[in-house]
Design a protein that fits this description.
Shape: elongated
Number of strands: 3
Radius of gyration: 26 Å
Structural class: mainly alpha
Strand order of the largest sheet: 1-2-3
Number of domains: 2
CATH architecture of the largest domain: Up-down Bundle
Largest sheet: 3 strands, mixed
Oligomer: single chain
CATH superfamily of the largest domain: Cation efflux protein transmembrane domain
Low-confidence stretches: 292-303, 305-309
Strand content: 5-15%
Length: 309
Amino acid sequence: MSASNGELLRRSGWISITTNIALFGLKYAAGMITGSVALTADAWHTLSDSVSSIMVMFGHRTSRKPADGDHPFGHGRADLIVGVAIGAILGWIGVSFVIESAERLTVTVPIAYGTIGLVATIASLLGKELLAQYAFYAARKSGSHALRADGWHHRSDALSSLAILFGILFAGAYPLTDAILGFVVAAFLFYGAWRTVWNCSRPLLGESPSNQSVDDVRDIARSTSPALNNVHHIHIHRYGDHTELTCHVRIDGDMSVSDAHDVVDRFEQALRDRMGVEPTVHVDPVDAPADSDCRRDAYRGDEEPETGE
């Protein structure tokens, strides 16, 4: 991550923290004055966004640390870990909203939101959507998964504010509107939590390379040397800005070790130059028997049709 992208991420974090604290104070006051569980819960949701923004900044700082003896591939996955943690926070807040809303179902007195409730809700809707847009922009520029998760945290808050705004218009006629809106807010939170945890945990657990990546590796092999007959067992491991690529390649068994080494060296350098990865290539003789490992078929790009090259 470049210095300019790092500055963009830090700026996004501080804007989020200060804006969320201001919105929390406004919505919490409105919730206390009106007695609305939806507004009060939404206020705490907003404050949690400040916590998640602090976590994003901490994760960014950690991910920029260089590799060391305990972490030979660097600390890039700290960004993903923070993203999963933010998703867990969203889910926990959603559960608390469900509990509070279930308790409010027994209340039959309509909530009088008043002017302060309307102002707080509109301010939250506009402010949180602007924060979400800025976070998504900064995530695209920096490639930060945690910042993208933070953007969804903002977006879920904006959507919950939209639901509350809708409820304000009907609260007088329907006393249970406030409790129902609490469930709606929780639903947005659960969706944001699921999306965040899913997107951040997949790279942590490991993913199959995309079809495009497999095609790129094989195209590079073909353009490097006709001696590289077949590329298989292609795996890509991402550690933030650092990406490791491992694969197997078949070479004529009669080729000398020195010549095979030179060919593979040129292949690895081409992978570095064209894909921005750090490759490790394992050599198999062309006439070696097919792998008997039952895991072989579970990975994308294990085998390709022989080209006859």
